[in-house]
């Protein structure tokens, strides 16, 4: 059986995937689930979402490029949390901004980001059949 591979990403599909990941991530933040689910799932889903957003924006770039770009974005967001000036701490007090920028640096978040972006990479390769790897 012949496998069909694509050299580009279908943006409509990526919008649906991104929206699903966002909804799933918000659901895992509910009070009921927050105690039942390991808190790292949010960071994992965040990284997965970043991977698919990068794929959406750069839809003709290879999967390897998207992987590196999304890991860099996630790591930069995490490392910026080490900066604790008063103005940015006040900014991060806003719930929406805190969802985007986070609040405090954790090494475990880097692990979740790595696993999340790798999941996106492998989903593209195996399920979505994106061919390019550069």
Automatic annotation (TrEMBL):
Keywords: Membrane, Transmembrane, Transmembrane helix. The lineage of its organism: Bacteria, Pseudomonadati, Bacteroidota, Cytophagia, Cytophagales. It comes from the Bacteria. The keyword Transmembrane applies. The chain crosses the membrane at residues 12-30, 36-58, 65-84, 104-123. It comes from Flammeovirga kamogawensis. This is DUF2809 domain-containing protein. It holds the Pfam family DUF2809.
């Amino acid at each position: 059986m012949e496998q069909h591979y694509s050299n580009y990403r279908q943006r409509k599909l990526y919008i649906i995937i991104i929206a699903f990941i966002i909804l799933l991530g918000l659901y895992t933040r509910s009070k009921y689930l927050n105690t039942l689910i390991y808190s790292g799932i949010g960071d994992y889903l965040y990284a997965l979402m970043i991977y698919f957003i990068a794929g959406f924006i750069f839809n003709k770039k290879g999967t390897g490029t998207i992987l590196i770009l999304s890991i860099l974005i996630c790591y930069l967001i995490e490392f910026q949390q080490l900066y604790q000036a008063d103005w940015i701490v006040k900014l991060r007090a806003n719930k929406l901004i805190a969802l985007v920028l986070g609040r405090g640096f954790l090494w475990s978040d880097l692990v979740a980001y790595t696993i999340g972006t790798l999941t996106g990479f492998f989903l593209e390769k195996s399920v979505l059949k994106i061919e390019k790897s550069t």
